[in-house]
Amino acid sequence: MESREDCLHDAAECDRLAKLATTQATRTLLAVAAFQWRKLAEKAAEREKRSWPLVSEAASIAVAGGLVDWVALSAACLRAS
Predict the structure, then answer these.
(1) Which tens digit of pLDDT belongs to each residue from 24-53?
(2) Rg (CA), the chain
């Protein structure tokens, strides 16, 4: 799945290409594509927020142990699911 930043990058690329387009139809198509990429970016941001505690907990395990304890990391993943 694409990250929020990837989606926003793709939206910006559509905007850039729309400025270079020679027909109104192409500009419109690219504007719609940019709009859809921005909607996907919003969904990706929501998805990233929901997964944030898992990332935080996994980082805590890695820092506290000095090395990643794969058993503890797996347990953290299962609890977050």
Answers:
(1) 999 999 999 999 999 999 999 998 888 765
(2) 19
Q: Give 68-79 as a 3 state SS string.
A: CCHHHHHHHHHH
Expressed in percent and rounded to 5, the helix, strand and coil fractions of the chain are: 85, 0, 15
Terminal CA-to-CA distance of the chain, rounded, Å? 18
**pTM for the whole thing?**
0.62
3-state DSSP assignment of residue 3: coil
For 16, the token pair is: 């850039």
Under 8 Å between Cβ of 14 and 34: yes
Domain that holds residue 13: 4-80
Number of domains within the chain: 1
Both structure tokens of 81: 């699911």
Q: What backbone torsions phi and psi does residue 3 show, to the nearest 5 degrees?
A: -80, 165
